[in-house]
UniProtKB/TrEMBL annotation:
This is Magnesium transporter MgtE intracellular domain-containing protein. Gene3D superfamilies: 1.10.220.30.
Amino acid sequence: MVVALLLAGSAVLRLGDDAGRAYARVEAAGTEAPPPAPTGCTPPPDIAALLDAFRTREDRITRREAEIADRAQALSVADQAIARKLAALTEAEEKLRATLALADTAAEDDLNRLTAVYQNMKPAEAAALFEEMDPQFAAGFLGRMDPAAAAGVLAGLSPQTAYSVSVILAGRNANVPKD
C-alpha cells in the first residue's frame, strides 16, 4: 500500500510538472505578437496641415533663437568695449584732476614765492616796483604780505597810488555774502 501511494504521488508530481509547461505553451500560442507598426503612414489632411504649421513655427523659433543668441553676443562684446572705455575715461579723468591740482598748487606756490620775495626786499625798492604795477595787481600782493612788510611798501608809494591800492584792498571783500 505504501508502494502504491508512492507510485501515485510520483505520477501526480509528474503530471503537475508537465501540466504547467502545457499551460504555458497554450497561453503562448494564444498570445500573438502585435503586428508591426506601419512605416509609411500618411496623416489625415487636417492633421498634416497642423504638423506643417508646427514645423514652420519650429523653424521660425529656431531662427529667432539664433538671432537672439547673435544679438546677445554682440551686446556682450559692446558691454565689454564700453567697460574698457569707461575705465580708460575714469583713468584719464583722474590724471586730469591730478594735473589740475598740480596746476592750481603750482600757481599758488608761484604767488607765495613772489610774495615772499617782495616781502624780503627793502621797502623802498619794493615800493618802486609796486608804483609801476597795476593797482589791482599790487593790491593782490600787498594783501598776501605780512602786515608790517606791506605797511613799509605802502608807505613808500606815492599818495595817489597808495590811496588806489588801499581802496582796492578795503573793497575786495565788500561783495562777500554776510551770513
